[in-house]
Write a sequence for this structure.
């Protein structure tokens, strides 16, 4: 009995050691996978930044056309930064007479496994209660990732090809310029690193559009923005860096 008990105890110890080694190996692999995913997302951001720099060397009609192309690049790289099963959409914002907003002219980026390209715009006069308008009014740092089975206004998960999404306004100070929205078929695919990269892409797009509009037009458009809280957007970056 003593020998049997000793053998069982030894086997238990070996089992615990093996389990510890497995857990350590699994943790290492998870960390490496996370690191690779984050690095890939930053690579996609650098593509957007490189294209944005090229736009800055243009003027007039050539610059306007390059900005339109940059919207497609942002959508493409945003989807790529999340990976397989992703779709990203860049919406441009325009105002109707009276100041009501339309988010339309969608530009899509798709990864493997996604073929859906909805083209219906968001129209404020048709649904003023939609939370997307509050999202546009608030700071661009505030939006959160939403995932199944969370209840989300206007989202029926059973009809969607995605289970998680993140939408961020494209803004220059209080001036609303558009929105970048990214979704994926797998819950948990949009982590903190990816969220930060998508926000940086949106801010890059805002910076380019703002430079094209110029201060006079931006200040005119700012009169339409009745913000409920102080925004945190492109213009705040320089203020933060100087502190």
């Amino acid at each position: 009995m003593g020998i049997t008990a000793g053998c069982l105890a030894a086997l238990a110890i070996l089992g615990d050691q093996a389990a510890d080694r497995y857990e350590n190996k699994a943790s290492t692999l998870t960390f490496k996978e996370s690191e690779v995913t984050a690095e890939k997302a930053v690579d996609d951001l650098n593509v957007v930044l490189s294209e944005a720099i090229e736009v800055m060397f243009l003027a007039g009609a050539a610059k306007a056309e390059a900005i339109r192309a940059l919207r497609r690049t942002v959508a493409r790289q945003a989807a790529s930064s999340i990976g397989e099963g992703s779709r990203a959409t860049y919406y441009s914002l325009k105002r109707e007479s009276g100041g009501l907003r339309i988010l339309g002219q969608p530009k899509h980026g798709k990864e493997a496994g996604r073929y859906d390209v909805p083209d219906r715009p968001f129209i404020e006069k048709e649904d003023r209660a939609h939370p997307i308008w509050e999202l546009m009014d608030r700071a661009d740092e505030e939006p959160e990732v939403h995932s199944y089975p969370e209840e989300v206004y206007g989202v029926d998960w059973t009809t969607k090809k995605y289970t998680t999404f993140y939408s961020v306004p494209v803004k220059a100070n209080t001036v609303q310029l558009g929105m970048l929205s990214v979704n994926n078929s797998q819950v948990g695919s949009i982590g903190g690193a990816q969220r930060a990269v998508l926000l940086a892409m949106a801010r890059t797009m805002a910076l380019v559009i703002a430079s094209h509009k110029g201060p006079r037009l931006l200040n005119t458009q700012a009169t339409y923005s009745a913000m409920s809280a102080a925004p945190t957007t492109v213009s705040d970056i320089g203020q933060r860096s100087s502190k």
Observations:
- The helical segments are 2-55, 60-82, 131-137, 192-222, 234-241.
- The domain at 2-241 is CATH 3.30.450.40 (Beta-Lactamase).
- The longest helix spans residues 2-55.
- The longest strand covers residues 86-95.
